[in-house]
Amino acid sequence: MARLAVFVLVLALIVPAAELPSDVPQLFCQPGGFVVSRFGGAVQVQPKAGASFNVFFDAAAYQSNAFDAALRAAMSSWSTVDGSAWSYNFAGYSNAAPSGSDGQMTVVRGGQSFPPGVLAVTIFRGVGSTGELIDSDIFFNSNAPITTSPGAGEYDFQSIALHEMGHGLGLDHNDACLPTPTVMHSTIGGAVQRRSLLPAEVEGVRFLYPGSPSGGGGGGGGSGGGILSASPSSLLFSGTVGAAVPPTRTLSISGSSGAWSAVASTDTGGDWLRLSPDSGTLPVVLEASVLTGGLGPGTYTGRIHITAGTSAADVSVSLNLSPPPANIVQASPASLLFEALRGAASTPQDVRLTGSGGASWRATAVTTSGGPWLTPSPDSGTLPSTLVVFVSPGGLNPGVYSGRIVVTSGDTTREIPVQVEVASQSRLVLAPAQFSFTAPAGSTALVCSSLRIAGFAGALLDWTATPSASWLAVNPGSGRSPASTTVCANPAGLAAGNYSAQLAVAAPSLSSTQNVLALLTVAPPVTFGSSGVVNAASFANQPLTAGQIVSLFGANLASQTAQATTFPLLTDLGGTRVTIAGVPARLLYVSSGQINLVTPSGLTGSTVSLSVSNGSVSSPPVVLPVAHQSPGMFTVLGNGVGAGAITHVDFSLVTRAAPLAAGEPFSVYLTGLGPLDSPVADGAPAPTDPLARATNSVRVLVDGQEASLYFAGAAPGFAGLQVVIATAPATLARRFPEMVVEVGGVPSNRFTAGGPSLLDVTPPTVRTGADARLTLRGVNLPASAGVQVAGQALPASLADGPLQTLSVTLPAALLASPGPLALTVIDTSAPGEPASNPVTLTVGSVAP
């Protein structure tokens, strides 16, 4: 049986960069301003048979939340275009990664390697002989600040989903076709929302899939050939907490005549969705309504599942509730707690009532047990007011009693929960109930905190405090409540580890003793050296410069692994902090052995002091050199060598399969350019307008030839990441040239444009004097690869995958002496092309 060739195309939505020529030529623009995708720039995508995709959502990321509702809204937009037969049909949630050409769409968070600046990619496949679209999948960049309600420096999830679903059905970027951006524009700015199809997109989907809309949108599916449809395919309710419920919405259900039924379900917020009627005979118009009592501000999602015979359809439902306006009566504090001794009076407490000035209010007391022990005074007035709450515990037996004060103002109500604990005799009340101390190993400094001691219901009680371990001390050790005493842990002489002890606090007049738990962690020291502070791109031990991404390697740098998830970047991540020249650095990633950070933008001088704090344990300061520039180029494998992070104008990577062409614009990504002409606030993403440009001189050398420079500066939407945009020389001697970026005369690490790159070798150690079978992993490895070792090129077999592998046998003659051995990969069919970076094999006298 003959196998069909399959084309694969990747399309991406990116954050704006410097102005560049459109990635799709104007000659491909269709009337109406849309562009149909092409495989390899030549074969035009042909419509998918059946004009629909069943869509699965990543269960871990997009189930029963605001992202879920946004995806359904994006699907509905493409599925309800008049004059188009296209539909996206929700098919369920999936925990599995997309599996090749499965004939459906899966929307995934992560799951791909994203070039800098890319928010999401769509990968789709087509039949090689016809170009017919057969499969599409969408991948969102899990490290990008993508939200459903974007603020400054964040990107709108629904807008991106709408864009990527346009790619999924066969449309390409239309930058060159129209004067203003539409949904299918290749870039989107921070906080920009493009949630509705514009005429260009409408014309595009009609062109590819002419016909009548299926009404799928939020679901559909089932069998029956589409005989059942619901319009609209999604419902949105909007309201305000404490106000009237949103108006009822109607839903038209049509199809072959017969019986139907509908079931409403909700993902969040409880049972708030209602239908009337919920069964009958087609066609019908049913009413959907919501109940908002008890719901707080936020977005709630649900769905209506409709069945008729063997056919089914789903309608997605969203309920958005805004916070109550300021004129609704508010109470501070929002709840009250009383302590009382049996038979004794309790001290009253005040509640401040606010809202619309001059509005009248009335208060009533409600108790659930124990009789009428709760009284508000006064019980009416005008806003703002102070309400005094009294409790009368005289007739109450020991126990805990609950009630509430109900305050009504106009048509709004505020409930103030009230609880009273009645005791037969007083006792000591201690706060906190537990101490947690941390000290570095070898320290002799005391670590102290305060313990508050009071008598229940304000009683005056004498007390004593006694520690159970020699490392725990208290001063003073006795007194009368209410009082405060200092509790200290002494780590002197203790080995690294965890310790616990009790502080027994007793009142001589009482028969019981209360214990306060004290925990002490003697932490190993935070250590690193100047050699462990490197450029995060090149891993070279270079001077620091302003606004640079730096990696710091050491021991006990953090107590947990944590990664930045939002802008501005934080100065405290997982309890770890880094200070440079007295300024807190912004953190990207922390773990026990590594920290990635962005140096302060105001870094100056010739040297600075850097220290790391893990919780309360700090490292000794390390003095590091500072320079005006310290360039390091990011590489594809993230190890500072081999193929660089270089992209074409469409932001796809330069690779062996897609090499750099002579005269082509390209971008390289790096860090360490130094000062910018428009300073970017520490921790903030670089802006799009105005672009922040490097003040240092910048050159890009391609096999020794200088490329024509277009832009050098901060990469918009990122902190610490920088980009240089240039045009390749008109002539290139090699397909995969070697490059270097010079900043102020200082060169970066050397890298190649799509050349072979090695990550590692397995096993890393082999026996002396015996043949060894090795596996090398990397990217951009040629089919005619040879492994070069000690001046010899050995044949190797190549296997493709996310990381390619080369299998090679090293003869015993090359492994005669113990020590390190460098391995590189060359293209035996093109010996003039650059070799890969070396990986080191250790030859040992004893088997590993």
Question: How is the secondary structure organized here?
Answer:
Layout: E1 6-14, E2 38-39, E3 43-44, E4 52-58, H1 59-62, H2 66-79, E5 87-94, E6 105-109, E7 118-127, E8 133-140, E9 146-147, E10 155-156, H3 157-169, H4 199-208, E11 228-231, E12 234-240, E13 249-255, E14 259-266, E15 273-276, E16 279-281, E17 284-290, E18 298-308, E19 311-322, E20 330-332, E21 336-341, E22 349-354, E23 360-367, E24 374-377, E25 380-382, E26 385-391, E27 399-409, E28 412-423, E29 428-431, E30 434-440, E31 447-455, E32 462-467, E33 472-475, E34 478-480, E35 483-489, E36 497-506, E37 513-523, E38 527-535, E39 549-555, E40 562-563, E41 576-580, E42 583-584, E43 586-590, E44 594-598, E45 607-614, E46 617-618, E47 622-625, E48 632-633, E49 646-647, E50 665-671, E51 698-702, E52 705-706, E53 708-714, E54 722-727, E55 738-743, E56 746-747, E57 751-752, E58 757-762, E59 765-767, E60 772-779, E61 785-789, E62 792-795, E63 797-799, E64 804-810, E65 819-827, E66 839-844
Helix pairs in contact: 2-3
